[in-house]
Amino acid sequence: MSFPVDRPRRLRSSEKLRSLVRESRLSTAGLVYPMFVCPATKVRKELSSMPGIYQQSVDQIVEECREVESLGVPAVILFGLPESKDPEGKSSLKADGVVQRAIEAIRKAKLDLLVITDVCLCEYTDHGHCGVLNKGEIENDATLEILSDQALSHARAGADLVAPSDMMDGRVGAIRTKLDKHNFENVPIMAYSAKYCSGFYGPFREAAQSAPQFGDRRSYQMDPANAREALKEVAMDLEEGADIVMVKPALPYLDIIRIVRDACHVPVAAYNVSGEYSMVKAAARNGWIDEKRIVLEILTGIQRAGAEIVLTYHAKDVARWLKS
Ligand code: PBG
Questions:
Q1: Which pLDDT does position 207 carry in this prediction?
Q2: Looking at ligand 1, which residue's alpha carbon is closest to its atom 10?
Q3: Which of 70, 178, 184, 315 is the 20 to 30 Å CA partner of 225?
Q4: Ligand 1 atom closest to Cα of 201?
Q5: How many CA atoms lie within 13 Å of 210's alpha carbon, on the beta-carbon side?
């Protein structure tokens, strides 16, 4: 293949032709919209570092879910800001907890939406870590019981999928066993399998009020420098029963998305996280970038890297842009 017989520009001469030969087609069908549920009613508080994203009470969540549904976005993922926090994150298990009530309200409104829940302790513990503590250390095995009970309470409330994000070893297996034991064998697990210890979660921690009160998450989240280890985490989660595996964050880890896609046979999700969103929003507000163009390019890139599912705060905008 060489010039002048071969001229790649031939296939770039019109939009019709470019569209005909396009390798990845971004679609709303793979998007998941993250939402933050808080107590009380009629609360809708915009996050200063994430314009367009709100902490909302259950009634407001339902209203926004109507909009999400009407835009054709198929799924939301819920994060809870509980009334109270304690060392073990026990408020995450309450049948009338914020997330549980939000799921029920979305179900009651009969919205045609998949409801996914984030399963973790950091939003519910007073110390902000994703597991329970023992002498200042995060205790793996003791955390599994609470996580699996939390997943069960989400399933009981009507969650369609549960998504553990804590990075404790063995949590996918513990959750699968617990769900099966209570006849929720058809509730899939979307595992945050390769979740890196990332500075890009900064704005989320404001949104979910989940910043660790001491230390950091390096003893459980992955080292950003590691790629092979992601395959190990994915293999273990699949062995334990994960139905979907996730890479998180997305943009600095496109190589990980690609190797995970090539290494397994389940759907791969990527989380286009809060910091990635905030950077785009800040630059767009300053008039430095064309927001629509950049967001569509970013999501196309994440999909091209191999993710069928993308969790993104841009989901509603993307759905609108793809429609018009
Ligand atoms: C933990 C969790 C985090 C995110 C999703 N689930 C934060 C963390 O690990 O500190 C980050 C999402 C984002 O930044 O958008 N429950």
A1: 87
A2: 201
A3: 315
A4: 14
A5: 24
